[in-house]
Input
Amino acid sequence: MGGSSPRASSGPEGDVIGHVLCTRATVTPGTGTPGAPVLGLGPLSVRPDWQRRGVGSALVHAVLGSADALGEPLVVLLGSTEYYSRFGFRLAGEYGITPQRPEWAPHFQVRTLAAYDPVLRGAFAYAEPFDRT
Output
C-alpha cells in the first residue's frame, strides 16, 4: 500500500465522487538510524455535491482496513482533529512522533494499527517528492 489511491464512484458513468491518497513515509528515531516505513494519508477529497453523505468516511475506512490488512503499523495525516478523531486518530505527539514542521503539531495525527509497536517513535518524514520546492 506504499502508494495507494482508493476512489469512490457513482452513477452509470462511474463518475469519481471521492478520492484519497496514501504514500510511503517514515518515522526515524534518531540521526543515522534508518526510518521505519509508515503511511501518510492525504489528500482526501469528496465532490461538494456528495459531501456529508458518508463518502469521505468510507474512503478513510477503506484506507485503514487495507493498511491494517497489509501489516502497516500506523497512518499519519495532517488535518482536522474534530473530523479525524472519529476514526481513532490522535495527536501524533501522544505517540512521540514529531512532524516535519513544528507548526503542524496541533493538526498532526496518528492512527495506530494492529502491527503498531510503541517503540516506533521519532521524526516523521513524507516521501521525498513532497519535499521538493
Summary: The radius of gyration is 15 Å. Residues 55-69 form the longest helix (15 residues). The first strand starts at residue 3 and ends at 4.
